[in-house]
Design brief:
Rossmann fold; six-stranded parallel sheet; two-stranded antiparallel ribbon; 10 helices; 10 strands; globular; binds magnesium ion
Length: 251
Amino acid sequence: MIPGSCHLAPGRWEPAIHAGLERMVREHGRSGGQWDPHHRPLATFDWDNTAILGDIGEAVLDYLDERDQTQRSLEYERQCEEFGKPVGYPWAAYQIAGLREHEARALTLQVIDTWMARGKITFRPEIRDLIAVMQHQGWEVWVVSASAEPLVRTFGQFYGIGPDHTIGMRLKMDDSGRYLPALSGPNTYRQGKVQAIDEIIGRRPVFAAGDTDTDIDMLRSARYALLMDRGSAEVRQAAEAGGWWVQPPGW
Ligand SMILES: [Mg+2]
């Protein structure tokens, strides 16, 4: 990438979205003339089914089920149906309780390897490219996810996102450094994502990307928003009302 460049690879982007993103990145970035190193433009990306195809939180449950002959995935679905996602999502994150940080990292890398080999998780090169171009243009890029934070921290490194720029379900730790089945930060579901952005980053995003109803509040909080459409009527309505970019399903 040449200095000051902000060309996105065309990839599978809708041409109008590709052009809009390039313009936005340039106008708010180093090339734009108003760029301030002390107040860099903020971009927040949902992770599962936005930055990647697939869901690392659910993949870990499936992996543990296979390895340990458990039924965590079924129980997760039951929790979501019976008590709702605000209960089911933290429950899924609690399944790494008992692990130390490096053990959670090792587990995540193992799951990524195995699930990518099976085609159940794939990178989205266009999103990785967008993040790289944003960073090159002086944007500050964060991941804001409802999966357990240690999982997303590990995965985010494949996209050049540092662990200190990742927000997920943050778990408490005991004195010996093992994760506990309890949150130490906001429940990053819907408005909880915005709450986490306010508390941890301290300013609202210029750009946000997401794929589902749980991202609506974060997308509304941003000046520009990208929906990786997965067919939800509720989210499409929000996108129409908000004038978001809507990348059609299929990748
Ligand atoms: Mg998602």
